[in-house]
């Protein structure tokens, strides 16, 4: 048998916590000494271990009490439900990570805190992906829409995102140079290569996305690209074709 002090020392659970577990009926001592001191049996210790395991899995004390008092099938059902909650939380954290990166990069690119852009970025990430892509529906077919929605942002490294941001930042800082110049051609070539990295060298998808960009011109979904950047890239493409003639 274990006194509450010994149980606390062996398990790392504070006496105060054990008192609370006793109070709510989660773990009650099997017996007491003549002096009224609580004594815990091996079964009580095993129950505490189960409580600690379930608590680690993210279950609330109320849920844990319910699980411990029900059958094994309920255990399995509860764990499956908890797995679903964990997966949803992972997805939420992934989206939050991308939103934070977007905000961080926007400050880096703008050189200041632009709250209008930051708020727009947050709104974009709060949207359902299908809803966010609705403006593309006149330019992309169903397979292309699905491919973009299925793109896993976790497969795009932070380094690749930084490269993308830097390429567009460089273009923004050089909008007044000659589109036929070597520098302009190199910048747009870098932009195109980065776009191919994101879209898996799918020429049809790239072409349709470019058509959407040309027609829609702007919107936070294209950030950090804007109308001026798109027009500059378009002028570089035209200059490149003219140089071939």
Automatic annotation (TrEMBL):
PROSITE patterns: HTH_MERR_2
Keywords for the protein's UniProt record, in alphabetical order: DNA-binding
Pfam families: MerR_1
Listed InterPro entries: DNA-bd_dom_put_sf (IPR009061), MerR-type_HTH_dom (IPR000551), MerR_fam (IPR047057)
Residues covered by the HTH merR-type domain: 1-70
Protein name: MerR family transcriptional regulator
CDD domains: HTH_TipAL-Mta
């Amino acid at each position: 048998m274990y006194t509450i002090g010994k149980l606390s020392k062996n398990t790392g659970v504070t006496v105060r916590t054990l008192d609370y577990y006793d109070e709510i009926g989660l773990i009650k001592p099997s017996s007491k000494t003549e002096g009224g001191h609580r004594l815990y049996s091996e079964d009580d210790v095993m129950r505490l271990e189960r409580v600690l395991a379930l608590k680690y899995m993210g279950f609330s004390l109320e849920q844990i009490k319910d699980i411990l008092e029900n059958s094994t099938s309920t255990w399995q059902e509860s764990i499956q439900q908890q797995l679903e909650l964990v997966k949803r939380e992972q997805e939420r954290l992934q989206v939050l990570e991308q939103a934070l990166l977007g905000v961080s990069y926007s400050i880096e690119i703008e050189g200041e805190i632009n709250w209008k852009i930051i708020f727009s970025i947050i709104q974009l990430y709060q949207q359902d992906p299908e809803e966010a892509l609705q403006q593309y529906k006149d330019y992309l077919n169903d397979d292309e829409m699905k491919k973009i929605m299925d793109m896993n942002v976790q497969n795009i490294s932070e380094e690749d995102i930084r490269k993308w941001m830097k390429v567009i930042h460089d273009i923004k800082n050089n909008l007044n140079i000659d589109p036929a110049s070597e520098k302009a051609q190199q910048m747009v070539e870098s932009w195109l290569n980065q776009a191919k990295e994101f879209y898996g060298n799918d020429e049809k998808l790239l072409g349709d996305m470019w058509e959407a960009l040309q027609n829609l011109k702007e919107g936070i979904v294209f950030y950090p690209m804007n109308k001026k950047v798109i027009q500059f890239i378009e002028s570089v493409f035209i200059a490149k074709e003219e140089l071939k003639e």
